[in-house]
Amino acid sequence: MAHEGDKTPGKFYMNYFKKLQMTEKSYKKDNWKKTFAIIWGGQIFSTLSSMTVSYALIFWLSFETRSAEVLATATIASLLPQLILGPFIGVFIDRFDRRKIMISADLFIALCSVAIALLLFQGYHEIYLFYILMMLRSVGSAFHVPAMQASIPLLAPESELMRVSGVNQMIQSASIIAGPPLAALLIGMMDIEYVLLIDLVGAVFACGSLLLVHIPNPVKVGNIPEPHMFREMKEGLIEIYKRKGVMTLFAVSVGAIFFIMPIASLFPLMTINHFSGGTFQVSFIEVAWGAGTLAGGLMLGIKRFSINRIILINSMHVLLGLTFVFSGILPIEGFLIFVGLTFIGGISMALYSGTFMVVLQTTIEPAALGRVFSLYGSLSLLPSIVGLMYTGYLAGKIGIPNAFLLAGIALMLLGFYSFMAPSLRKMIKEGTS
Questions:
Q1: Domain assignment present for 141
Q2: Do 256 and 411 form a contact (C-beta atoms < 8 A)?
Q3: What's the chain's average pLDDT?
């Protein structure tokens, strides 16, 4: 039975998790490297296949329509389910088996891709089918990503979280490097419906690796409060709000994504329209971004940064903003410089996102991490979608290069603000991150 003072759900979860800390520490010490080796083995194939399919869809839409509005709409379609479902999904992740959630999500994404491919084989090639596919893939990602992120602190020692984040970033980056040229090659060799079937291959590898490992969950001890969706969502918000520095970091990150996401959707059109590029150039610029994120992941994975994590995050906002600014003022002949700036931008994005995840994993109770990560996903997507809704209009009115310029200035201002924010300055001074 729980003690009388433990009846508050938030306190109860904190107390029962603390009872398990010694057991979890022993498990992490003895098994974490083997567990991650198996998981990463499956994730390499899964991430590469998923990235290849995603880029194939982007390339197909870019060359079929040459429309900023279509690309923005497609991006919104891929984000909207995560925005709507995110707060609710976090409750399920913290309540149920996280490994089963990830396996189910991988299978769902693969089956959706197969279903759309079958419709395409029947002769249906309407654009709305691709929007539907992106929405369905997003539903699966909305479950898989926060479940994985919430599981990491239960698998690895706290001292190794930056290295784990770095390796995860490297896997993503390697897929970003290989995905675009592979997607461009496949699009040139076969119809889009055949490319979609690659999702099924990736899901088999991902699910197979997850079936071979044990992923611990916050164990249910004693009398657990009855499930209550909105109460538990509120508890997730409280976990963020009661840490003022984390709350400020949340707000800054959400603001940054508002400017990053619209620009991310314009990279193919920037290459095609401004630099007069073709399939090779479009895939090459994506490879440059992936190479940058791979370099950033390597830095996180092999180097122990002496710099405070908050300072690192703030600095990367400024650096990424600078790459957008300089990209926006490049002449038509400056494609190779654009490639170099994109590489630097990839480094800054990898260092920022990887470090931000570690800050959350080390400051939030693991029993609430599912809710916190899914809430962050939803809160960051809302302004992103608003920004994307105006992407086509803005690009048409002021031009794509000027959109890069304005977004870069905004990111730099956010970075400078972060250095001056009292709660973040306090975290830096205390060295708590």
A1: yes
A2: yes
A3: 75
